[in-house]
TrEMBL record, chain A:
Residues 2-225 form the ABC transporter domain. InterPro entries: AAA+_ATPase, ABC_transporter-like_ATP-bd, ABC_transporter-like_CS, ABC_transpr_LolD-like, Cell_div_FtsE, P-loop_NTPase. GO terms for cellular component: plasma membrane. It holds the Pfam family ABC_tran. The keyword Cytoplasm does not apply. Its main location: membrane. PROSITE patterns: ABC_TRANSPORTER_1, ABC_TRANSPORTER_2. This is Cell division ATP-binding protein FtsE. GO terms for molecular function: ATP binding; ATP hydrolysis activity; transmembrane transporter activity. Keywords: ATP-binding, Cell cycle, Cell division, Cell membrane, Membrane, Nucleotide-binding. It is a peripheral membrane protein. It is found in: Cell membrane.
TrEMBL record, chain B:
It is found in: Cell membrane. One of its GO terms (biological process) is cell division. The chain crosses the membrane at residues 21-44, 179-199, 232-254, 274-297. Residues 181-302 form the ABC3 transporter permease C-terminal domain. Residues 59-146 form the FtsX extracellular domain. This is Cell division protein FtsX. It comes from Candidatus Portnoybacteria bacterium CG02_land_8_20_14_3_00_45_8. It is a multi-pass membrane protein. Keywords: Cell cycle, Cell division, Cell membrane, Membrane, Transmembrane, Transmembrane helix. The lineage of its organism: Bacteria, Candidatus Portnoyibacteriota. It comes from the Bacteria. GO terms for cellular component: plasma membrane. Belongs to the ABC-4 integral membrane protein family. FtsX subfamily. PANTHER family: CELL DIVISION PROTEIN FTSX.
């Protein structure tokens, strides 16, 4: 479903990605491993259409992402769910409203929103935090809200960019378990992380990047540099 | 679906306004000051116009006819003058009327009254008192009366005696009006820029949320909408507050201005034109708030 064909990205003479090729199949759980600056975030930026590749093509469901017009990009983004290291919640909205927002922008009816939002918050383990504001939540709770928001419009793929980077050990495993559960329910997961322990315990496919190049791509992989 | 989106955008804008009340208060405060200044400028222009009209109303030019000129001819000249676009009004003062006014004015001066009675005939001349629309037009009217065909009947036009005064008045009223326009433009521009910048700063605090909204899949319109609604709310609330703030200000200031410039009653003007003021301030606030938000948010949607 996701295809990178010979993709390079050069920022002001600095190569962030160098002739990258890989394919992610539906319902796969793939970890993108590598140190900071290896090119993990650039891959995500290309996938959501925030950046254009300098060379090569990126496809999602056979659609070339970089042929989509700027004002049509939001349709692409509704097919994906994004989770970030810094959570990126809307600070002036409650937990409920943050999650509902993703449905509102997609044009869901009020009835659907009222029905789905509490359900998804229950799934991520926050059924009693509906009216809390992000500032009243712990890091782990914020990340669960972010995951709920990413999941709410039933995307075919979730892109998680260092989702455990700001969390303690306990919360890290909670989030990883949650991502595994979501994957079991049929959603493709792409997890970018430099957390060796997380990757080594997942026993899933690992694509290892270094200095913008793929140096290893293996099933049941480990993070070795 | 579209109706639902519009409703959501409006609701979201309103929530933003209410929930970030400190930010809203600060923005509204700046806009209230700007719009209040605009309201004061409107009143200032009313005042200068009143002063100019008052000064111009005091000036006229009189044409004195020879004593033997027939009344019909004088009235004929009057008819011609009235037809001129520069002329506002022409009053005919007959010989008898002139005498009556003269006697009335000098009734306490016994010597003058006695010498008047000793004369066989009325020594005064029939005249026309001409008022122009603007002080600058008296010269044109005076030139018109210098025409050859009036030579036999017109004794004198007192424009020359009044010329200095009229010229000074023309330049004074012109200066007052120009100054009014320049001051209004400059202060209006400052008010608009200050409001625009305040809203820009408000939007700057939301730049991260804007990027989040886009990542979640919101169309540009859905991101922009609530902020524009918020800007419009800032403008409308500020307009209404500025309007209400003018009442206590005028309550204290208006009587003092009336003392200084009789005939200028700003409080009356404010009350009589309340709805015009309402629409002016609210419309300017609305436009200023809405367009400022629209322009300010554009750069965050482009990245």
């Amino acid at each position: 479903m996701i295809v990178f064909q010979n993709v390079s990205k050069i920022y002001d003479g600095c190569t962030a990605l160098d002739k990258v090729n890989f394919t992610i199949r539906p319902k796969e759980f793939v970890s993108l491993a590598g140190p900071s600056g290896a090119g993990k975030s650039t891959i995500f930026k290309l996938l959501i259409g925030e950046e254009q590749p300098s060379r090569g093509k990126v496809f999602l469901d056979k659609q070339n992402i970089h042929l989509i017009r700027e004002n049509e990009l939001h349709h692409l983004r509704r097919k994906m769910g994004m989770v970030f290291q810094d959570f990126r919640l809307l600070s002036d909205r409650t937990v409920y409203e943050n999650v509902a927002f993703a449905m509102e922008v997609a044009g869901s009816s009020n009835k659907e929103i009222v029905q789905d939002v509490p359900q998804i918050l229950e799934l991520v383990g926050l059924p009693d935090k509906l009216s809390a504001f992000p500032s009243q939540l712990s890091g782990g709770e914020k990340q669960r809200v972010a995951i709920a928001r990413a999941l709410i419009h039933r995307p075919s793929v979730i892109l998680a960019d260092e989702p455990t980077g700001n969390l303690d050990l306990l919360n890290t495993w909670d989030i990883v378990r949650l991502l595994l559960k979501i994957n079991e329910l049929g959603t493709t997961i792409v997890l970018a992380t430099h957390d060796r322990e997380v990757i080594n315990n997942l026993s899933k496919r690992v694509v290892t990047l270094d200095k913008g190049r793929i140096i290893r791509d293996e099933e049941n992989g480990r993070y070795i540099l | 679906m579209r109706k639902l989106s519009v409703w959501r955008v409006i609701k979201s804008g309103w929530q933003g306004f209410i929930r970030n009340y400190w930010l809203s208060t600060a923005t509204v405060a700046v806009m209230v000051l700007a719009l209040f200044m605009l309201g004061c400028l409107a009143l200032f222009n009313v005042m200068t116009q009143a002063v100019v009209a008052n000064l111009e109303g005091r000036v006229d030019v009189s044409v004195y006819f020879n004593q033997d000129t027939e009344e019909a001819k004088v009235l004929g000249v009057r008819q011609e003058l009235v037809a001129l676009s520069e002329v506002k009004s022409v009053d005919y003062v007959s010989q008898d009327e002139a005498l009556k006014r003269f006697s009335e004015r000098h009734k306490d001066n016994a010597v003058l009254m006695q010498s008047l009675q000793e004369l066989d005939q009325n020594p005064l001349q029939p005249s026309l008192n001409i008022k122009a629309n603007y002080a600058s037009q008296y010269e044109t009217i005076a030139n018109y009366l210098n025409d050859e065909r009036f030579k036999g009947m017109i004794d004198r036009v007192n424009y020359k005696q009044n010329k200095d005064l009229i010229e000074r008045l023309t330049s004074l009223t012109g200066n007052i009006q120009t100054a009014g326009i320049v001051i209004s433009l400059v202060l209006g521009l400052i008010a608009a820029l200050v409001s625009f910048n305040t809203i820009r700063l408000t939007m700057y605090t939301w730049r991260d949320e804007i990027s989040v909204m886009r990542l979640v899949g919101a169309s540009n319109w859905f991101v922009r909408g609530p902020f524009v609604v918020e800007g419009v709310i800032y403008g409308v609330v500020s307009g209404v507050m500025a309007l209400l703030l003018m009442y206590p200000m005028l309550y204290f200031v208006s009587p003092k201005i009336t003392n200084f410039l009789p005939g200028v009653d700003l409080m009356y003007f404010y009350q009589a034109n309340f709805w015009e003021f309402f629409f002016l301030l609210v419309a300017v606030g609305l436009l200023l708030g809405g367009t400022s938000s629209l322009i300010a948010i554009r750069r965050y949607l482009k990245d």
